[in-house]
């Protein structure tokens, strides 16, 4: 039996156990998927082996750490600089990133995006920046502190208070603001200027109307939350966990069924 898990801080909101367990059941595989609330980043590798996991999805704020602790690092994950999927093979940890491909699948009906702004500079922001780069979209990353922006030297980057260009047709919030509070990712005056120009928005948090999404609605910006990204990155991670191919539609259907369960 494969023992799988999602690891993060916080993690109680995660729907990953629901979608993965339903896919395991639907495809007749031998495995179980649960969640673990980790608070100490340095314990991630020890925890993986202590729990005797075969694989894990890594969520905020440990995606960069997940890449660091891996023995074998997928080229895609290395280019992004973070990993959201760990798989045990021959007693070695393999790191992958399925966030970028999952994100692109989630927004494939957002057409004619030419210029995008990413709020936040963590592991998820790296994945999304890499994904948007593949679509040759002009990109800017804005963050609270300069230190995190060191990871985005290949892009235009700026701290929030120095942002002078507000003309973006797509805005992505990758911060955890609104997950356990009613905070916006940055000053509302800045978001007012940005969203008044935007056509599309994306919130990586799912399952709740965050203050960011409420503001998007106020400005009549077409938006999505992170549920579809969760679905697709989950499909791609599931393939890695069980080393299966050509089953994406079956996996997706099972996961969608789980999401639609009351």
Main features:
262 residues; alpha/beta; Rossmann fold; 2 domains; six-stranded mixed sheet; six-stranded parallel sheet; 22% strand
Model description:
This is Shikimate dehydrogenase (NADP(+)). Involved in the biosynthesis of the chorismate, which leads to the biosynthesis of aromatic amino acids. Catalyzes the reversible NADPH linked reduction of 3-dehydroshikimate (DHSA) to yield shikimate (SA). It catalyses: shikimate + NADP(+) = 3-dehydroshikimate + NADPH + H(+). Homodimer. Belongs to the shikimate dehydrogenase family. With 262 residues, this protein is an alpha/beta fold. It folds into two domains: 2-97 and 228-260, Leucine Dehydrogenase, chain A, domain 1 (Rossmann fold, 3-Layer(aba) Sandwich); 101-225, NAD(P)-binding Rossmann-like Domain (Rossmann fold), CATH 3.40.50. It is built from ten helices and twelve strands. The strands form two sheets. A six-stranded mixed β-sheet has the order 2-1-3-5-6-4, sandwiched between helices. Strands 9-8-7-10-11-12 form a six-stranded parallel β-sheet, with helices on both faces. Helix 6 (123-134) links the parallel strand 7 and strand 8 (138-143). Helix 1 (16-26) packs across helix 9 (227-242), helix 5 crosses helix 6 and helix 5 packs across helix 9 (227-242). The two termini are 28 Å apart.
How is this fold's topology laid out?
Layout: E1 2-8, H1 16-26, E2 31-37, H2 44-50, E3 55-58, H3 63-69, E4 72-73, H4 75-80, E5 85-89, E6 92-96, H5 99-106, E7 115-119, H6 123-134, E8 138-143, E9 156-159, E10 170-173, H7 188-195, E11 200-203, H8 211-218, E12 222-225, H9 227-242, H10 248-260
Parallel strand pairs: 1-2, 1-3, 4-6, 7-8, 7-10, 8-9, 10-11, 11-12
Antiparallel strand pairs: 3-5, 5-6
Helix pairs in contact: 1-9, 1-10, 5-6, 5-9, 9-10
